[in-house]
Amino acid sequence: MPENIIVCEDLWHIYPGEVTALRDANLTITEGEVVGVIGQNGSGKTTLVKHFNGLLKPSRGQVLVNGMDVGSHGTAELSRNVGYVFQNPNHQLFANSVTKEISFGPRNLGLEEREVEEQVEQAIDFFDLEDIRDSHPYRLSFPVRKLVTMAAIYAMQPKIFVLDEPTTGQDHIGVRLVHKLIQKLRETGATVIIVSHDMILQAEATDRLVVLWQAEIIGDGSPREIFSDDQLMERTNLHPPQITQLSRRIYRSGLPEAALRVEELAEPLAKTL
Ligand SMILES: Nc1ncnc2c1ncn2[C@@H]1O[C@H](COP(=O)(O)OP(=O)(O)OP(=O)(O)O)[C@@H](O)[C@H]1O
Ligand SMILES: [Mg+2]
């Protein structure tokens, strides 16, 4: 039986100034799940996931990550198991070269220098950063900076990998890299949490979607279920991928009811034509 790796119980987060960003959230994520978090701007997505490595502490309620209560464990300790790629890379970057940025995490975990190097080289290779390995991160464009922050977390091989808006601003190559990253993490058995407005990514890469609306979790199900729930989509002002919308409109026997990928609809549709 896969264990419950993240458990939020009656979680509230209230920022200074009485801003309630999370209201009574209950959520259980099991090891190895790939879970998307969706919701409009300001609905509380980043606030939710920042509890997973202790960057934020519950105002009320409890969050258990890998059996540890985030309220009583520090970020340093939690970060051994949880890697969080910030929504804004400028909040994460601090070193003066790409290589130094990526080495920091594994070195900090106490790996031997040889292992640190190995992890760094693998990350540079995976994210195709060889040409800019000596560059100062602040000389790079926002999307490339974001890839550097993903590489920095990747090099730590965390058991839980949290991505906050990984495809924002990415070109096609960057988006493919994010898909490839999630696929790789899935194969290695990591638990992956993806906060994203990119509904194509959410449809194609996740097993499950959690929907936030005005600080509350109001939906939790498979992408197919969530994207077929018209009331939920309307209330949250979220839009399923066009392929899902199209397949639902033209649905008939022999075709998928709610396709999540182009191929899922294209092949059976071609046969009926
Ligand atoms: N440090 C803070 N202090 C006060 N209020 C904050 C702070 N950070 C976030 N908020 C507020 O909390 C609410 C939730 O913010 P959060 O960043 O979690 O939303 P989000 O769903 O990640 O939005 P986005 O899609 O824009 O990234 C918003 O109303 C936001 O303005
Ligand atoms: Mg956010």
Quick recap:
The chain has 11 helices and 10 strands. By secondary structure, it is an alpha/beta fold.
Description of the molecule:
The chain is of the alpha/beta class. It has one domain (4-221): 3-Layer(aba) Sandwich (Rossmann fold). Helix content is 37%, strand content 23%. The protein has 11 helices and 10 strands. It has a 6-stranded mixed β-sheet with strand order 6-7-8-3-9-10. It is globular and about 60 Å long. The mean pLDDT is 97. The protein binds adenosine-5'-triphosphate (ATP) and magnesium ion.
Q: What structural class do you assign from the helix and strand content?
A: alpha/beta
Mean pLDDT: 97
- Main pleated-sheet profile: 6 strands, mixed
Order of helices and strands: EEEHEEHEHHHEHEHEEHHHH
Share of helix among residues? 25-40%
Helix tally? Answer: 11
CATH topology: Rossmann fold
Shape: globular
State the distance separating the first and last CA atoms: 45 Å
Bound molecules: adenosine-5'-triphosphate, magnesium ion
Major β-sheet strand ordering = 6-7-8-3-9-10
Low-confidence stretches: none
List the defining traits of the structure above.
single chain, 273 residues, alpha/beta, Rossmann fold, 6-stranded mixed sheet, 4-stranded antiparallel sheet, 10 strands, binds adenosine-5'-triphosphate, binds magnesium ion
What is the element layout, followed by pairings?
Blueprint (H helix, E strand, L loop, with lengths): L3 E12 L3 E12 L3 E5 L6 H5 L10 E6 L2 E2 L5 H4 L3 E4 L12 H11 L4 H14 L15 H13 L5 E5 L7 H16 L3 E5 L3 H7 L2 E6 L2 E6 L1 H5 L2 H7 L5 H8 L12 H11 L1
Parallel strand pairs: 3-8, 3-9, 6-7, 7-8
Antiparallel strand pairs: 1-2, 1-4, 4-5, 9-10
Adenosine-5'-triphosphate binds next to strand 2 and helix 1.
